[in-house]
Amino acid sequence: MRFEPWRLEVDSTGSPPIHEAECTTCNAASGAADDKAEPELWCLRHAGRTGHSGFRGITTTFFRATRLG
Ligand SMILES: [Zn+2]
User: Fold this and answer.
1) Distance 52 CA to ligand 1 centre (A)
2) Dist. CA 15 → ligand 1 center (Å)
3) How far is the CA of 23 from the centre of ligand 1 (A)?
4) What is the pLDDT of residues 4-14, one digit of tens each?
5) Exposed, middle or buried: residue 33 (CB in 10 Å: 0-12, 13-18, 19+)?
6) Contacts of 19 by beta carbon, 8 Å cutoff, 6+ apart
7) How far apart are the first and last CA of the chain?
8) Is residue 26 predicted with pLDDT exceeding 80?
9) What are the residue boundaries of the DUF7848 domain, all occurrences included (predicted)?
10) CA–CA distance from 22 to each of 6, 44, 62, 66 (Å)?
């Protein structure tokens, strides 16, 4: 297999990284936010309300491939 000269970079032209959190007990989700403080605060509120203490943090980052040749 031959690889073409492509470069992969973080795509800064579109959306910034998206942060989200999910409860590992009931799968409730914080919803997407640009600032990771929002899902972190949601975790604490959810823990206070439900007693659930395990969470999954998800960050979605966008990449863009560019052909060099
Ligand atoms: Zn929960």
Assistant:
1) 5
2) 28
3) 5
4) 799 999 998 88
5) middle
6) 32, 33, 34, 35, 36, 38, 39, 57, 58, 59
7) 18
8) yes
9) 1-67
10) 35, 12, 20, 33
